[in-house]
């Protein structure tokens, strides 16, 4: 497994095999074989564009939801995490240490859509004891990509 290849793909998945081979000083065939094997092994799980949704006419709202859950005997948190991950609104699910058990990142068109999703889907799950929803106000960096470069929104500035 070529860790340097993974780092380059993480930085920019649009690099061509030729560019990757040049940067790594290996052949294109080696790059192709490594990518194919890492995909087969589930190391490379997909490729995504990082989009600044606030710059288009179809923005969305996202929230981070903290969940306290009761793990099921013999399987722990896996089943409930898989059930939560199956919803279209859910972008990410993480098992956490600390005050809460699962961190769920969701996306929807409006605040109300997220509130409904939490109230109707998450909070009603048998294993969920409590939820805490935090709405994302602004994204500055996502998946190692900086957003809002050079743009100021005026919040936090003190005018005297």
Short description:
Helix content is 31%, strand content 21%. By secondary structure, the chain is α+β, with helices and mostly antiparallel strands.
Please tell me about this protein's structure.
- Helices cover 31% and strands 21% of the residues.
- Helix 2 (17-24) packs across helix 3.
- With 160 residues, the chain is of the alpha+beta class.
- The mean pLDDT is 86.
- Strands 2-3-1-4 form a four-stranded antiparallel β-sheet.
- The protein starts with a helix and ends in a 14-residue tail after the last strand.
- The chain is built from five helices and six strands.
- The chain has helices spanning 3-11, 17-24, 28-40, 78-85, 111-122, and strands at 61-69, 90-95, 102-108, 128-135, 141-142, 145-146.
- It has two domains: 3-40; 53-138, 2-Layer Sandwich (Alpha-Beta Plaits), CATH 3.30.70.920.
